[in-house]
């Protein structure tokens, strides 16, 4: 089992539901975060999520799509 924060679970759920289509960064931000001007919180969540998945050998690829957001796919 992988221990994820609420934000990480939410981001992964959204990315998997939209796969293989990219998801806009704004859609990945929670309503609370969306009110703030700094949307880099999602970058931290994605980074931590990718690290945790890799540490457990999960075959999920999350990558950035320039000018759009992020996309998730199974390898």
Describe the structure.
The chain has 75 residues and is of the alpha+beta class. The protein is 48% helix and 19% strand. It has four helices and three strands. It has helices at 6-18, 25-28, 31-34, 41-55, and strands at residues 23-24, 60-65, 69-74. A three-stranded antiparallel beta sheet has the order 1-3-2. A hairpin with a 3-residue loop joins strand 2 and strand 3. Helix 1 crosses helix 4. The longest helix has 15 residues, at 41-55. The protein is globular. The model has no long low-confidence stretch (mean pLDDT 85).
Secondary structure elements and pairings:
Layout: H1 6-18, E1 23-24, H2 25-28, H3 31-34, H4 41-55, E2 60-65, E3 69-74
Helix pairs in contact: 1-4
Give the helix level as a range of percent.
40-55%
How would you describe the shape? globular
> What are the segments in which pLDDT stays under 50 over at least 5 consecutive residues?
none
How many H/I helices?
A: 4
What's the assembly state of these chains?
single chain
Whole-number mean pLDDT: 85
- What class, by secondary structure content? alpha+beta
| N-to-C series of helices and strands | HEHHHEE
Keywords:
75 residues; alpha+beta
In short:
With 75 residues, this protein is of the alpha+beta class. Helix content is 48%, strand content 19%.
């Amino acid at each position: 089992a992988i221990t994820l924060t609420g934000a990480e679970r939410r981001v992964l759920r959204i990315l998997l539901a939209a796969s293989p289509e990219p998801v806009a960064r704004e859609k990945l931000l929670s309503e609370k975060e969306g009110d703030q001007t700094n949307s880099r919180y999602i970058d931290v969540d994605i980074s931590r999520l990718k690290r945790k998945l890799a540490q457990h050998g999960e075959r999920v690829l999350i990558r950035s799509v320039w000018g759009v957001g992020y996309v998730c796919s199974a390898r």
